[in-house]
Amino acid sequence: MKFRSRLEKLSGPSAVAIGNFDGFHAGHKTIIETLQQTACCEKLLAVVLTFHPHPRLYFNHPIQLISTDRQRRDTLSRQQLDYLFFIDFNSVVGLSAHDFVRDFLLDTLRMKVLVIGEDFRFGRSREGDLAHLHREAATAHFKIMQSAPVKIDGCRVASSLIRKKLAAGAIREANRMLEKPYYIDGIVERGAGRGKTMGFPTINIATKNQILPSGVFHTRVEIGNRQFVSLTNIGFAPTFHAAGEVALKIETHIPGFQRTIYGKRIRLFFIDKIREEMEFTSVQGLVEQIRQDIAQLSI
Q1: Given this model, what pLDDT does residue 238 score?
Q2: Domain assignments of the chain as residue spans, ordered by start
Q3: Looking at the domain that runs over 2-152, which CATH code has it been given?
Q4: Mean pLDDT of all residues in 122-130
């Protein structure tokens, strides 16, 4: 697979899938599978076109994304593609829908088939829709394949819905739609050391991921090529700090883990939410609760 950060004219005809692919959920997988099958059957290059930053961020509309740009790039790079174009959104934001199709898709990418999801919009001010694509296809002679929506638990799978599930701590529901555990990437940083004094040493994680549900979670930590069952608290440590006194912290306890890993890059997978973060009247009360939390892990 060839990764490109700017468009270049392709050497042969292509099938193209376009999207943000935030979280790379079950619906996104269907789009990519359709792309791969079509490209194989029609002997076309399999091409994915995605953008950074997310259009909502570009226009300063509030949004918390499931994946960082690095995570999106890494996930898409693992798909069986010929080209992944990860393009600055600024390069297309001013194009009309017509110019986007003619200049970007047909002339540069030599597109013969376009694979899209259910709510695909494009062009300046989102003026392009499925009807517009059909008008373009009638004169430029390319095919449009619209991937059918995927439903899980009776709901149409969409990144917007998964964001809401994660923010609310509905980890199992979100994971079913993602078809994998939600995860964040981060660097281990030095903390206050309070967990160690209570008998539950933790690693403190600094991350660029944006969706950080509060509470206590059953998690798995990936360090290098090994994974460890773990217990993670995301919150403000109310037993030790007054409201507003400290920033949000991600603290993970790995039972039996003794290594010092400051500065290491780790990946934290969320399996399920155990409970809300609580304020205890004594440290001993917190210790007893942590023991109960650990007992719920599948170690």
Answers
A1: 81
A2: 2-152, 182-295
A3: 3.40.50.620
A4: 90
